[in-house]
Amino acid sequence: MSSDTHATLIRMANQIAQGLTREPDPAGATADHIRLYWEPRMIAAIRASGPEGLSPVAAQAFARLEQA
Amino acid sequence: MTYQPQADFGTPESRSTEQVTLTIDGRPVTVPAGTSVMRAAAEIECSIPKLCATDSLESFGSCRLCLVEIDGRRGTPASCTTPAENGMVVHTQTPHLQKLRKGVMELYISDHPLDCLTCAANGDCELQEQAGAVGLRDVRYPVEATHLGQAKDQSNPYFDFDPSKCIACSRCIRACDEVQGTLALTMQGRGFDSKISPGLASENFMSSECVSCGACVQACPTATLVEKNVVEIGTPDRSVVTTCAYCGVGCTFRAEMRGEQLVRMVPWKDGKANHGHSCVKGRFAWGYAQHAERITKPMIRDRIDQPWREVSWEEALGFAAARFTAIKADYGAGALGGITSSRCTNEETYLVQKLVRAGFGSNNVDTCARVCHSPTGYGLNKTFGTSAGTQDFDSVDDSDVILVIGANPTDAHPVFGSHMKRRLRGLDGRPAAKLIVIDPRRTDLVRSPHIEADHHLALRPGTNVAVLTAMAHVIVTEGLADEAFIRERCDWEEYQDWAEFVSLPTNSPENLSVVTQVPAETLRAAARLYANGGNAAIYYGLGVTEHSQGSSTVIAIANLAMATGNIGRRGVGVNPLRGQNNVQGSCDMGSFPHELPGYRHISNAETRALFEKDWGVTLHPEPGLRIPNMLDAAVDGTFRALYVQGEDILQSDPNTHHVAAGLAAMDCVIVHDLFLNETANYAHVFLPGSSFLEKDGTFTNAERRIQLVRKVMTPVNGMADWEVTQALANAMGFGWNYTHPSEIMDEIARLTPSFAGVSFDRLDKEGSLQWPVNDAAPDGSPIMHVDGFVRGKGKFVVTDYIPTEEKTGPRFPLLLTTGRILSQYNVGAQTRRTENSMWHGEDRLEIHPIDAEDRGIRTDDWVKLASRAGETTLRALVTDRVAPGVVYTTFHHPDTQANVVTTDFSDWATNCPEYKVTAVQVGASNGPTDWQRDYDEQARQSRRIATIEAEAAE
Asked: What is the interface pTM, i.e. ipTM, of the complex?
């Protein structure tokens, strides 16, 4: 995966987390959003690279996706 | 058969529910109160002679030909201006009337050329017809003073104006006023000097404010205003009703034909979206369908640096199928995908997504709606429970307040723009609707003849959410919310959370004016008007969606409508104006990678089972890649084959460099299109497409109205687009056997509850249907959420203003926003291949006089437009339509490549690109940038088609 693609995915994840800040459970809402709209290889890419660059809420969302 | 125009009842239909009965020539007739005697007579096929009356215009009473006698009344009143009354006894033909009419007609003909046999209107001329109807046999007046022998004005590329043939009935002037609302025409001079004039005497039609909508041409009873095509070809001999393939208004037209030659497109009076009106695109700009640059033979090549090779359909499809199959074997189904087109029919779109899901075995299907209205889908689904506008277009007739945000309907949705203007001028006799415009640019709706917005909120681009939150702040804190509606229809607790949030002092107009640049008092006044002004309707466009907070803005709009109770009846609602003819339909048809037709998520096992059973395959349960992610994955090497139907992603998608890199990295790109578009520069297979005139199918417009597209001529490429997709599927071994698009619609209806009651037969009989059409709404649904929201309770969602990451700074101090112009359409593939380019031959950069002066830029100067993503050059237009700090351009021309400049920032929820905000710098320039030169060379190389001689030499 190119560094550009990786940066794009991190930015997308952070943007989603930010967009859902006002939800009662922002990390849960972010995880749901990603599960509903992201293709599996996008999720896998972030899993593979680890949470570096992710905002705390986005990182928490990915932790929840791991558990699922 | 001779040519038959649509019936003309002389005066408009009355909307009264009260009925009156009268007697005309001994026959009883019952009509709504307010109907003219002329129209009542026409209802029983009694045609009273007329010249200045036509049913698209209010009665005028000037030609004195439609006189009648009415028992108990003195004289001979004009039937067009006399309302029918109960018990009235009317005589339309008496010796006295006959004499009067003959006298009037004699005067007309004494000043009209008698060249009927060689006149373009021969056989389709009301003057000729009426001369016959009144029995005129002789003209006694000597030919002395006349207005004959004047020069024609042939400046408009689509119609001629011959003043010598004018009978001064004023129908064209009234059409421009009442139907189009441009008021470009006037009557100049008196007596024999009377002449229709487009603006000043020094102006011709082309240099005037005329927008070439064709309303005057249609209204003209003679050959004074006549289509150049009719002059050249002759009158048509048959007509087929079909649906326009330009914008999301979905106008219906009579395609008037002679043989297989299209003579003209005439707006259909029974069309429920356009009511007999049209714009310059739909009415006139269809010549691209027969353009010399159209590719009619399939072509292939191994590598994109090779010239194209024309081959048989069989070879092209075999080549494509072999490559796709091999890529699937080597890299898995996830390496394959497709893009559906909002310009193609529902049936074609459905087939492409079916090919991807059932054939390729991935969910990597996306559509051009990704880059326009995907936030509408997300936002309205979240708040209301369905991804569509809530109203039909006619609903605007009952609006008291119209709020237009991020939309420019008079340019981008012109026929609805005219409809809206009629309401804003109160032409229906009721008080005019009030208007709020939220737009960084002073669009024509803000101020144009007889139109003036009550409030124009000229916000800084990128601050929509802040403006709407501030409006909500005013509505809640000033007690203007409709709490009864909210308690009944919405989740009260969610409302309270939202109300608490918007009421925070940080969300006051005073506080937010620092970021929005909208004066607090203007914003407060607009909010009060929206909440208190009666029925308030919101219309929005891509100025809402194409932002990093596009989805949040759609949600904020829905919140405002719910908070003020403006949902669920005529005159109110939330109305996304769709860019392309079938944006709504392509979304409905399951074009998004995460959902099957009817907006059902791919993870839903029950829905999947329904399709799996029907299609006989197992579907992948997880979402596929969106367009930008396909391109990322292509660069990374995991996505390698793409089938693109009727979409030019290289020109229309943001950050052209990135798109080009993604396409260049793929092993096989199939472009299925009318022309060698920009994307085709990177394609290995070109499958020629068919135009909307060459196929059957359906389009769904912005009001969810499904309408038939009817084939009027044989496809010059040999196959309709649905047949091409089927042939590709079959070349890959999928064994499809549709014989007509109606069978595809039957499959859609079978599998999609909101389309359950839709069929070609019904559409043919009823003209159109608005989904949902099902057991609960057997005749369709003009207005949605009438008794409650589709999702149950309306959901208020807090939307926090988050500034875009795209920021101005010392290097890029200006904000670029983009839009469309009336005469061109999107990437221009169609309109650039018509005479419409006479109105707009190049993209221009609008810049405020202050910013221009700082940089030493004058109108017409070449300027360099640079952003963090790239740079391009174009010519400047200095204007105060844009605010200081903001520049604006269109994206209709590939040589400008405005998307070289736009970034790949996108909406947080849907990845809809942020076209509307790019930080840029503008400076003087000598000419094209290196990128423009390189691109031009690459495009030239890539478009080479090997000649027969070259092949013979091999």
From this structure: 0.95
